[in-house]
Amino acid sequence: MEYRLALGSLPEKRGWVLRAQQGNGVRFSEVAVFEQRGTESFEQASEYLKALPMASWPVAPKELPACRFGLAALDPARPQGSKHTLALCQLMGPHRPAPSPGVQHIKVKIGQQDPQAEQEALKPFLDRVKSIRLDANGQCNVKTAMKWLHFAQKTPKIAFLEQLLPVGQESTLAAMARDTSTPLALDESLCQPFGVERALDAHWPGLFAIKPSILGLDFPASIWPHTVLSCAHESVFGLSAWMALAEYLPLNFPVGLPQRCLTPQGLELPWPCDGAADWDLEAVWEGLRGKGGRCLRC
Predict the structure, then answer these.
(1) DSSP string covering 13-58, please?
(2) How far is residue 158's CA from residue 57's CA, in Å, rounded to a whole number?
(3) 95 plus 212 within the same structural domain
(4) pTM tops 0.85
């Protein structure tokens, strides 16, 4: 099926669904390759996964971030710490023009039209939800970014602004972040090689928008209170895998989920309103196998 992206579309999204069984317990995960965001290719992931030794729990190399997360999410040694209920944020868009029942936090894409028109379109949401995050995907220039900063500062429900400027303008974004009361977040900048590490070294003063399925969760503990986790066009297998791990992280912001929660075949499952979803992943797995899907059983 075709996936619509902020800056275009993907005619096809390929990956691997992983299933691990220990005793009576079953866990699922996904190797959700996303080359446009810096992961390995499907062919590279396939070559690595097919050669996996099953004698010990594998740790994929950092050069294969999608494989690294997919396998780490199945590791029986994870997660650790205290569990809490996740607050969820829903992406608005063509498939979801209004929040699902019970949704209190939403994400809206900006930077595609005149700021005044996009700001006007936000007004119907302001009385319906508790918070709104705005994501420009690097499509603003300094002038339009400043218009959004001024709008956010007088609109208390704007939680933060994500990747206002293109990759490469992080120093300008950092200066903006220091001069505004509304938090700014990096997203696409973090998907570059060693993007998170570079932002930490530069003492980035804002938030980190991290996509676990392509960046993993192996970061210093100090980062989590300043982190927003979000989806990366993975299926419900990948979503459920990183949501289960996120329940043990000290997050201060709702985690970002897509407009629709889809199976690998493109079937829509109920959107969860609070905490982890109660999806029957075993049934989805069996449906994949019945339709000739290629899955990896660990």
Answers:
(1) ---EEEEEEETTEEEEEEE---GGGT---HHHHHHHHHT--SSS--
(2) 43
(3) yes
(4) yes
